[in-house]
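Submission checklist for the structure archive. All mandatory fields must be present; incomplete records are returned to the submitter.

[x] Identifier: Vitamin K epoxide reductase family protein
[x] Organism: Lyngbya confervoides BDU141951
[x] Residue count: 332
[x] Sequence attached
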Amino acid sequence: MSRRRRSPWIHRWSRPIIGAIAILGAINTLYLTVVRFLGSSTVCPTDGCEQVLSSRYATVFGPGNAVAFGDGIPLAFFGLLAYVVMAGLALGPLALNSDTHKDQRLVWEKRTWFLLFLGSTAMMLFSGYLMYIMATEFVIPNGLKALCFYCVASAILATAMFILTLIGRAWEDLGQLFFSGIILGVITLLSTLIIFAPIPDVADAYNITDNTGKVVFSVTQESTASEIALAQHLKDTGAVMYGAFWCPHCYDQKNLFGVEALSIMPYVECDPRGKAAQPDLCQQKFDLAKEQLKTEVGFPTWEINGRFYSGARPLSELAKVSGYEGPQDFQN
């Protein structure tokens, strides 16, 4: 008398587990997407979350990328879409009743397994590249305080889904799977490098660089007499903008002034990797700003007439708080 062989428990539970992981990833990236669109700060035990999530690497198709699309789209938004798709692929076939739609369920399970493998492979490799960027650009220069926990969590979740797709079922042709993974890996890495490639130098532009001369952003907006006059007034009255070369909010602020005004606008670089950086001065000012505003402050932070203002500000507001009375037909 033969006994029916039961499949390993991981084969029975891999799809629900992958789906649960994908839902956790979707919640993580949804929070980051909402925070980014609202212009708020993330809740994080370290400074790294805000530093990393405000860098040019947190925005896709933005002004600091080779392929530009307006001010860019939060990378977390694409992560959200990827996790939602993975959740659908993992849990979708389980919605079919195994008793009344057994054949259909088996067909859809077979079709979606390979898609789950491709999706988890691409997400793991992309997350791995972002971990490399975070380590080399932020953690190594600044220590563990620059660690972004949301980014690490997303990388762990993507890797877990990849592992579960491998061990979650009995693959018939591991050679084809391996070959497909290699091809997808090459495509993913090449696409990633193209997306994050810095834009080339632009003629008649104000290039924002690090201390090696590498261009991170380029301001091409022209200044009118109003922007130039406001920049001169801010300089004459001792106002200062404290920022970082990699900060997209700082780029937005500089873009409001335009190319000609930026050569006048008072600015202090706070990141040690930036050009002519003064991190110690920035730390002193940020401590004073936190004490005055009773809240955390980020880049950029303005100091005007003894008061601090955190975040990018409309030029009309800078004119008002600084006592500027010149022409105010700001075009940007």
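[x] Structure attached
Curator remark: The first strand starts at residue 59 and ends at 60. Residues 102-142 form the longest helix (41 residues).
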